[in-house]
Amino acid sequence: MAFHIPLSFPVLNGNENLYTQQALSSGHIATFGQFITRFESKLSKRLKTHESVVLNSGTSALHLGMVLLGIGPGDEVICQSFTFCASANPVVYLGASPIFVDSEKDTWNICPEILEDTILSRISKGKKPKAIVIVHLFGMPAKISEILEIAQKYDIPVLEDAAEAIGSKFQGKACGTFGQVGVYSFNGNKIMSAGGGGALISNDTNLIQRAKLLSTQAREDLPFYHHLEIGYNYKMNNLSAAVGLAQLEQLDSFIKSRRLINQRYRKMLKNFPGIEFQTESDDSYSNYWLTAILVDKEKTGFSNEQLKDSLMKKGIESRFLWKPLHTQPVFNMTPYYGGSMSEKLFENGLCLPSSVDLTLQHQELIVEVIHTELSKTFK
Ligand SMILES: *Cc1c(COP(=O)(O)O)cnc(C)c1O
Protein backbone atom coordinates (compact mmCIF):
# COMPACT_ATOMS: atom_id res chain seq x y z
CA MET A 1 0.00 0.00 0.00
CA ALA A 2 1.18 3.52 -0.76
CA PHE A 3 2.51 5.61 2.10
CA HIS A 4 -0.33 7.20 4.03
CA ILE A 5 -0.75 9.15 7.25
CA PRO A 6 -4.45 9.30 8.15
CA LEU A 7 -6.10 12.24 9.89
CA SER A 8 -7.44 10.15 12.74
CA PHE A 9 -7.58 6.39 12.80
CA PRO A 10 -8.84 4.21 15.66
CA VAL A 11 -6.41 2.15 17.73
CA LEU A 12 -7.98 -1.16 18.75
CA ASN A 13 -5.29 -2.77 20.90
CA GLY A 14 -7.31 -3.25 24.07
CA ASN A 15 -10.15 -5.65 24.88
CA GLU A 16 -12.05 -4.99 21.64
CA ASN A 17 -11.43 -8.51 20.27
CA LEU A 18 -12.13 -10.26 23.53
CA TYR A 19 -15.35 -8.38 24.23
CA THR A 20 -16.79 -8.70 20.72
CA GLN A 21 -16.02 -12.44 20.80
CA GLN A 22 -17.83 -12.69 24.12
CA ALA A 23 -20.78 -10.74 22.75
CA LEU A 24 -20.92 -13.01 19.69
CA SER A 25 -20.72 -16.21 21.74
CA SER A 26 -23.47 -14.97 24.03
CA GLY A 27 -25.77 -14.59 21.05
CA HIS A 28 -26.71 -11.12 22.25
CA ILE A 29 -25.72 -8.96 19.32
CA ALA A 30 -28.73 -6.64 19.29
CA THR A 31 -30.05 -4.03 21.72
CA PHE A 32 -29.90 -6.25 24.78
CA GLY A 33 -26.78 -7.60 26.48
CA GLN A 34 -24.17 -7.23 29.18
CA PHE A 35 -21.90 -4.87 27.25
CA ILE A 36 -24.61 -2.24 26.93
CA THR A 37 -25.10 -2.27 30.71
CA ARG A 38 -21.36 -2.38 31.39
CA PHE A 39 -20.62 0.45 28.95
CA GLU A 40 -23.34 2.61 30.51
CA SER A 41 -22.23 1.95 34.07
CA LYS A 42 -18.54 2.54 33.30
CA LEU A 43 -19.42 5.80 31.62
CA SER A 44 -21.65 6.88 34.53
CA LYS A 45 -18.99 5.91 37.06
CA ARG A 46 -16.39 7.98 35.24
CA LEU A 47 -18.76 10.97 35.23
CA LYS A 48 -19.55 10.54 38.95
CA THR A 49 -22.54 12.90 39.11
CA HIS A 50 -24.20 11.79 35.89
CA GLU A 51 -26.08 8.84 34.46
CA SER A 52 -25.94 7.76 30.85
CA VAL A 53 -27.77 5.90 28.13
CA VAL A 54 -25.82 4.64 25.12
CA LEU A 55 -27.46 5.14 21.74
CA ASN A 56 -26.83 4.29 18.10
CA SER A 57 -25.31 7.68 17.21
CA GLY A 58 -24.36 11.07 18.56
CA THR A 59 -27.00 12.56 16.31
CA SER A 60 -29.77 10.44 17.86
CA ALA A 61 -28.45 11.43 21.30
CA LEU A 62 -28.77 15.11 20.30
CA HIS A 63 -32.26 14.47 18.93
CA LEU A 64 -33.40 12.70 22.12
CA GLY A 65 -31.77 15.36 24.27
CA MET A 66 -33.84 18.00 22.49
CA VAL A 67 -37.00 15.91 22.93
CA LEU A 68 -36.24 15.76 26.66
CA LEU A 69 -35.90 19.54 26.77
CA GLY A 70 -39.37 19.81 25.27
CA ILE A 71 -38.34 21.39 21.98
CA GLY A 72 -41.15 21.32 19.46
CA PRO A 73 -42.72 22.96 16.42
CA GLY A 74 -42.23 26.74 16.24
CA ASP A 75 -39.53 26.88 18.92
CA GLU A 76 -36.20 28.60 18.43
CA VAL A 77 -32.93 26.98 19.49
CA ILE A 78 -29.64 28.86 19.60
CA CYS A 79 -26.73 26.91 18.15
CA GLN A 80 -23.06 27.60 17.50
CA SER A 81 -22.69 28.14 13.75
CA PHE A 82 -19.15 26.79 13.55
CA THR A 83 -19.94 23.08 13.98
CA PHE A 84 -20.93 19.87 12.26
CA CYS A 85 -24.50 19.84 10.87
CA ALA A 86 -25.54 17.20 13.43
CA SER A 87 -25.56 19.87 16.17
CA ALA A 88 -28.45 21.65 14.44
CA ASN A 89 -30.23 19.07 12.29
CA PRO A 90 -32.29 17.61 15.17
CA VAL A 91 -33.70 21.11 15.81
CA VAL A 92 -35.19 20.88 12.34
CA TYR A 93 -36.37 17.25 12.85
CA LEU A 94 -38.53 18.63 15.68
CA GLY A 95 -40.06 21.40 13.59
CA ALA A 96 -38.12 24.07 15.46
CA SER A 97 -35.71 26.65 13.99
CA PRO A 98 -32.01 27.04 14.72
CA ILE A 99 -30.62 30.52 15.35
CA PHE A 100 -26.89 30.56 14.58
CA VAL A 101 -24.26 32.40 16.62
CA ASP A 102 -20.64 33.23 15.74
CA SER A 103 -17.48 31.94 17.48
CA GLU A 104 -14.86 33.75 19.56
CA LYS A 105 -11.16 33.72 18.78
CA ASP A 106 -9.68 31.74 21.70
CA THR A 107 -11.60 28.45 21.79
CA TRP A 108 -13.29 28.92 18.38
CA ASN A 109 -16.56 28.02 20.12
CA ILE A 110 -19.71 30.10 20.72
CA CYS A 111 -19.01 33.75 21.62
CA PRO A 112 -20.69 34.59 24.97
CA GLU A 113 -21.21 38.29 24.15
CA ILE A 114 -22.91 37.55 20.85
CA LEU A 115 -24.91 34.82 22.58
CA GLU A 116 -26.38 37.35 24.99
CA ASP A 117 -27.10 39.85 22.19
CA THR A 118 -28.87 37.07 20.33
CA ILE A 119 -31.05 36.13 23.29
CA LEU A 120 -32.03 39.77 23.79
CA SER A 121 -32.77 40.21 20.10
CA ARG A 122 -34.97 37.10 19.93
CA ILE A 123 -36.83 38.09 23.09
CA SER A 124 -37.45 41.54 21.63
CA LYS A 125 -38.91 39.85 18.55
CA GLY A 126 -41.33 38.07 20.84
CA LYS A 127 -39.79 34.63 21.24
CA LYS A 128 -37.46 33.46 23.99
CA PRO A 129 -35.09 30.73 22.77
CA LYS A 130 -36.03 27.30 24.10
CA ALA A 131 -32.45 26.01 24.46
CA ILE A 132 -28.80 26.79 23.76
CA VAL A 133 -26.64 24.18 21.99
CA ILE A 134 -22.97 24.63 22.82
CA VAL A 135 -20.13 22.65 21.24
CA HIS A 136 -16.55 21.95 22.32
CA LEU A 137 -14.87 21.72 18.95
CA PHE A 138 -11.92 19.40 18.41
CA GLY A 139 -12.14 18.73 22.17
CA MET A 140 -11.56 22.33 23.30
CA PRO A 141 -13.93 23.40 26.09
CA ALA A 142 -16.03 26.45 25.19
CA LYS A 143 -16.16 29.53 27.49
CA ILE A 144 -18.37 27.58 29.86
CA SER A 145 -18.51 29.94 32.88
CA GLU A 146 -19.66 32.90 30.80
CA ILE A 147 -22.14 30.80 28.83
CA LEU A 148 -23.71 29.25 31.94
CA GLU A 149 -24.03 32.65 33.58
CA ILE A 150 -25.97 33.96 30.58
CA ALA A 151 -28.09 30.80 30.36
CA GLN A 152 -29.01 31.15 34.04
CA LYS A 153 -29.70 34.86 33.75
CA TYR A 154 -32.31 34.22 31.06
CA ASP A 155 -33.33 30.82 32.40
CA ILE A 156 -32.64 28.89 29.20
CA PRO A 157 -31.47 25.25 29.33
CA VAL A 158 -28.13 24.27 27.79
CA LEU A 159 -27.64 21.18 25.67
CA GLU A 160 -23.97 20.35 25.53
CA ASP A 161 -22.80 18.81 22.27
CA ALA A 162 -19.64 17.21 23.65
CA ALA A 163 -19.50 14.80 20.69
CA GLU A 164 -15.84 15.67 20.17
CA ALA A 165 -14.95 16.30 23.81
CA ILE A 166 -15.29 13.13 25.87
CA GLY A 167 -12.57 13.33 28.52
CA SER A 168 -12.11 17.10 28.16
CA LYS A 169 -12.53 19.09 31.36
CA PHE A 170 -13.35 22.58 32.50
CA GLN A 171 -12.29 23.57 36.01
CA GLY A 172 -11.66 19.87 36.60
CA LYS A 173 -15.23 18.87 35.67
CA ALA A 174 -16.05 16.72 32.64
CA CYS A 175 -17.30 18.41 29.47
CA GLY A 176 -20.81 17.17 28.81
CA THR A 177 -21.83 17.55 32.48
CA PHE A 178 -22.46 21.31 32.47
CA GLY A 179 -25.71 21.42 30.53
CA GLN A 180 -29.12 20.00 31.48
CA VAL A 181 -28.20 17.21 29.07
CA GLY A 182 -24.91 16.31 27.39
CA VAL A 183 -24.03 14.26 24.34
CA TYR A 184 -21.02 12.19 23.24
CA SER A 185 -20.34 10.54 19.90
CA PHE A 186 -18.51 7.24 19.32
CA ASN A 187 -18.47 7.25 15.53
CA GLY A 188 -15.54 5.94 13.50
CA ASN A 189 -13.09 8.81 13.79
CA LYS A 190 -13.83 10.31 17.21
CA ILE A 191 -11.29 9.99 20.04
CA MET A 192 -12.96 6.73 21.09
CA SER A 193 -15.17 4.69 18.81
CA ALA A 194 -17.87 2.08 19.12
CA GLY A 195 -17.98 1.60 15.35
CA GLY A 196 -20.90 3.98 15.58
CA GLY A 197 -22.82 5.26 18.55
CA GLY A 198 -23.38 7.98 21.06
CA ALA A 199 -24.39 8.65 24.63
CA LEU A 200 -26.82 10.95 26.34
CA ILE A 201 -25.93 11.98 29.88
CA SER A 202 -27.65 13.92 32.64
CA ASN A 203 -27.58 14.26 36.43
CA ASP A 204 -31.37 14.00 36.35
CA THR A 205 -32.23 10.30 36.78
CA ASN A 206 -35.77 10.87 35.51
CA LEU A 207 -34.50 12.32 32.25
CA ILE A 208 -32.25 9.32 31.64
CA GLN A 209 -35.08 6.91 32.49
CA ARG A 210 -37.26 8.73 30.00
CA ALA A 211 -34.48 8.65 27.37
CA LYS A 212 -34.20 4.87 27.85
CA LEU A 213 -37.94 4.49 27.30
CA LEU A 214 -38.04 6.79 24.26
CA SER A 215 -35.00 5.12 22.68
CA THR A 216 -36.80 1.75 22.62
CA GLN A 217 -39.95 2.91 20.75
CA ALA A 218 -41.50 4.02 24.07
CA ARG A 219 -42.42 0.44 24.71
CA GLU A 220 -43.95 0.16 28.19
CA ASP A 221 -42.79 -2.57 30.55
CA LEU A 222 -45.78 -4.87 30.01
CA PRO A 223 -46.16 -8.40 28.60
CA PHE A 224 -47.63 -7.00 25.38
CA TYR A 225 -46.65 -4.08 23.15
CA HIS A 226 -48.09 -1.00 24.76
CA HIS A 227 -47.22 2.60 23.86
CA LEU A 228 -48.24 5.83 25.56
CA GLU A 229 -46.18 8.07 23.31
CA ILE A 230 -44.15 8.15 20.10
CA GLY A 231 -40.66 6.74 20.57
CA TYR A 232 -37.53 6.08 18.53
CA ASN A 233 -35.37 3.09 17.67
CA TYR A 234 -32.17 4.63 19.03
CA LYS A 235 -30.55 2.09 21.38
CA MET A 236 -26.97 0.98 20.86
CA ASN A 237 -26.41 -2.69 20.02
CA ASN A 238 -24.36 -5.03 22.21
CA LEU A 239 -21.58 -5.53 19.63
CA SER A 240 -20.95 -1.79 19.36
CA ALA A 241 -21.10 -1.55 23.15
CA ALA A 242 -18.43 -4.28 23.40
CA VAL A 243 -16.09 -2.15 21.27
CA GLY A 244 -17.12 1.04 23.07
CA LEU A 245 -16.43 -0.40 26.51
CA ALA A 246 -12.97 -1.60 25.43
CA GLN A 247 -12.24 1.85 24.01
CA LEU A 248 -13.47 3.63 27.13
CA GLU A 249 -11.02 1.55 29.18
CA GLN A 250 -8.23 3.16 27.12
CA LEU A 251 -9.61 6.69 26.93
CA ASP A 252 -7.12 8.22 29.35
CA SER A 253 -4.16 6.83 27.43
CA PHE A 254 -5.72 8.05 24.15
CA ILE A 255 -6.02 11.54 25.60
CA LYS A 256 -2.44 11.43 26.83
CA SER A 257 -1.23 10.58 23.32
CA ARG A 258 -3.39 13.19 21.60
CA ARG A 259 -2.23 15.86 24.02
CA LEU A 260 1.39 14.90 23.45
CA ILE A 261 0.85 15.13 19.68
CA ASN A 262 -0.67 18.60 20.13
CA GLN A 263 2.22 19.72 22.32
CA ARG A 264 4.72 18.54 19.75
CA TYR A 265 2.97 20.40 16.91
CA ARG A 266 2.95 23.55 19.02
CA LYS A 267 6.64 23.21 19.79
CA MET A 268 7.66 22.35 16.24
CA LEU A 269 5.63 25.17 14.70
CA LYS A 270 6.32 27.75 17.38
CA ASN A 271 8.67 29.88 15.34
CA PHE A 272 6.62 29.76 12.16
CA PRO A 273 5.09 33.11 11.30
CA GLY A 274 1.33 33.07 10.73
CA ILE A 275 0.40 29.71 12.23
CA GLU A 276 -2.04 29.73 15.15
CA PHE A 277 -3.68 27.16 17.42
CA GLN A 278 -6.78 27.08 19.64
CA THR A 279 -6.09 28.61 23.06
CA GLU A 280 -6.39 26.33 26.06
CA SER A 281 -7.09 28.52 29.11
CA ASP A 282 -5.88 27.66 32.63
CA ASP A 283 -9.42 26.43 33.38
CA SER A 284 -9.52 24.12 30.36
CA TYR A 285 -8.20 20.67 29.60
CA SER A 286 -8.79 19.60 25.99
CA ASN A 287 -8.71 15.96 24.90
CA TYR A 288 -7.14 17.36 21.69
CA TRP A 289 -9.09 14.94 19.55
CA LEU A 290 -7.72 16.82 16.52
CA THR A 291 -4.98 19.41 16.36
CA ALA A 292 -6.16 22.25 14.15
CA ILE A 293 -4.16 25.23 12.89
CA LEU A 294 -4.99 28.53 11.28
CA VAL A 295 -2.82 29.59 8.38
CA ASP A 296 -2.50 33.35 7.93
CA LYS A 297 -1.75 33.60 4.22
CA GLU A 298 -0.43 37.17 4.55
CA LYS A 299 2.33 35.94 6.83
CA THR A 300 3.00 32.42 5.56
CA GLY A 301 2.61 33.13 1.87
CA PHE A 302 0.51 29.99 1.42
CA SER A 303 -3.14 29.15 2.05
CA ASN A 304 -4.66 26.28 4.00
CA GLU A 305 -5.76 24.84 0.68
CA GLN A 306 -2.24 24.91 -0.77
CA LEU A 307 -0.93 23.25 2.38
CA LYS A 308 -3.64 20.58 2.20
CA ASP A 309 -2.65 19.80 -1.42
CA SER A 310 1.06 19.62 -0.59
CA LEU A 311 0.38 17.30 2.32
CA MET A 312 -1.83 15.11 0.15
CA LYS A 313 0.95 14.77 -2.45
CA LYS A 314 3.08 13.22 0.32
CA GLY A 315 0.28 10.85 1.33
CA ILE A 316 -0.68 12.92 4.38
CA GLU A 317 -4.36 13.44 5.08
CA SER A 318 -5.58 16.74 6.49
CA ARG A 319 -9.04 18.27 6.65
CA PHE A 320 -10.67 21.68 6.49
CA LEU A 321 -12.49 22.87 9.60
CA TRP A 322 -16.29 22.89 9.79
CA LYS A 323 -17.96 25.14 7.24
CA PRO A 324 -20.17 27.44 9.35
CA LEU A 325 -23.79 26.34 9.28
CA HIS A 326 -25.06 29.85 8.48
CA THR A 327 -23.14 29.61 5.17
CA GLN A 328 -24.63 26.22 4.26
CA PRO A 329 -27.16 26.34 1.40
CA VAL A 330 -29.55 24.16 3.41
CA PHE A 331 -29.66 26.79 6.19
CA ASN A 332 -29.71 29.91 4.00
CA MET A 333 -32.98 31.15 5.52
CA THR A 334 -31.75 30.76 9.10
CA PRO A 335 -31.02 33.84 11.25
CA TYR A 336 -27.37 34.44 12.09
CA TYR A 337 -25.80 36.68 14.73
CA GLY A 338 -22.18 37.74 14.71
CA GLY A 339 -19.38 38.80 12.43
CA SER A 340 -16.93 36.89 10.28
CA MET A 341 -15.00 34.93 12.92
CA SER A 342 -16.39 31.49 12.04
CA GLU A 343 -15.96 32.19 8.32
CA LYS A 344 -12.36 33.21 8.93
CA LEU A 345 -11.77 29.99 10.87
CA PHE A 346 -13.15 27.97 7.96
CA GLU A 347 -11.18 29.91 5.36
CA ASN A 348 -7.83 29.60 7.15
CA GLY A 349 -8.09 26.41 9.17
CA LEU A 350 -6.71 22.92 8.69
CA CYS A 351 -6.86 19.81 10.90
CA LEU A 352 -3.56 17.95 11.02
CA PRO A 353 -3.09 14.19 11.51
CA SER A 354 -3.71 13.41 15.18
CA SER A 355 -4.09 9.63 15.49
CA VAL A 356 -3.14 8.11 18.82
CA ASP A 357 -0.36 6.08 17.16
CA LEU A 358 1.10 8.96 15.12
CA THR A 359 4.89 8.72 15.55
CA LEU A 360 7.36 11.54 16.14
CA GLN A 361 9.00 10.67 12.79
CA HIS A 362 5.68 11.11 10.98
CA GLN A 363 5.03 14.39 12.77
CA GLU A 364 8.45 15.61 11.67
CA LEU A 365 7.55 14.69 8.11
CA ILE A 366 4.32 16.69 8.33
CA VAL A 367 6.13 19.72 9.74
CA GLU A 368 8.73 19.40 7.00
CA VAL A 369 6.00 19.79 4.37
CA ILE A 370 4.87 22.99 6.10
CA HIS A 371 8.48 24.14 6.17
CA THR A 372 8.92 23.46 2.46
CA GLU A 373 5.79 25.49 1.67
CA LEU A 374 7.20 28.36 3.66
CA SER A 375 10.62 28.28 2.01
CA LYS A 376 8.98 28.20 -1.43
CA THR A 377 7.47 31.57 -0.57
CA PHE A 378 10.49 33.17 1.05
CA LYS A 379 13.40 31.81 -0.98
C1 LIG B 1 -19.54 13.71 15.31
C2 LIG B 1 -20.36 14.83 15.75
C3 LIG B 1 -21.75 14.70 15.96
C4 LIG B 1 -22.55 13.54 15.53
O1 LIG B 1 -22.19 12.32 16.00
P1 LIG B 1 -22.55 10.99 15.16
O2 LIG B 1 -22.22 9.91 16.15
O3 LIG B 1 -21.69 10.98 13.96
O4 LIG B 1 -24.00 11.02 14.83
C5 LIG B 1 -22.42 15.79 16.50
N1 LIG B 1 -21.81 16.94 16.78
C6 LIG B 1 -20.50 17.11 16.56
C7 LIG B 1 -19.87 18.41 16.93
C8 LIG B 1 -19.73 16.07 16.03
O5 LIG B 1 -18.43 16.26 15.79
CATH class of the largest domain: Alpha Beta
The share of residues in helices is 25-40%
Question: Cα-atom Rg, whole angstroms?
Answer: 21 Å
By helix and strand content, what is the structural category? alpha/beta
Return residue spans where pLDDT drops below 50 for at least 5 consecutive residues.
Answer: none
**Strand order within the widest beta sheet:** 1-9-8-5-4-2-3-13
Tell me the series of helices and strands, N- to C-terminal. Answer: HHEHEHEHEHEEEEEHHHEEEHHEHEH
Strand content: 5-15%
Annotated CATH architecture of the largest domain: 3-Layer(aba) Sandwich
CATH homologous superfamily assignment of the largest domain:
Type I PLP-dependent aspartate aminotransferase-like (Major domain)
Please report the distance between the alpha carbons of the first and last residues: 35 Å
Would you give the CATH topology of the largest domain? Aspartate Aminotransferase, domain 2
Give the overall average pLDDT: 96
Number of helices: 13
What does this structure look like?
This protein is an alpha/beta fold and 379 residues long. Helices cover 38% and strands 14% of the residues. The chain contains 13 helices and 14 strands. Strands 1-9-8-5-4-2-3-13 form an 8-stranded mixed beta sheet, sandwiched between helices. Strands 7-6-11 form a 3-stranded antiparallel beta sheet, with no helix packed on it. Strands 10-12-14 form a 3-stranded antiparallel beta sheet. The relative contact order is 0.18. The mean pLDDT is 96. Residues 57-59, 83-84, 86-87, 135, 161, 163-164, 185, 187, 198 line the site of pyridoxal-5'-phosphate. It holds the Pfam family DegT_DnrJ_EryC1. It comes from Algoriphagus yeomjeoni.
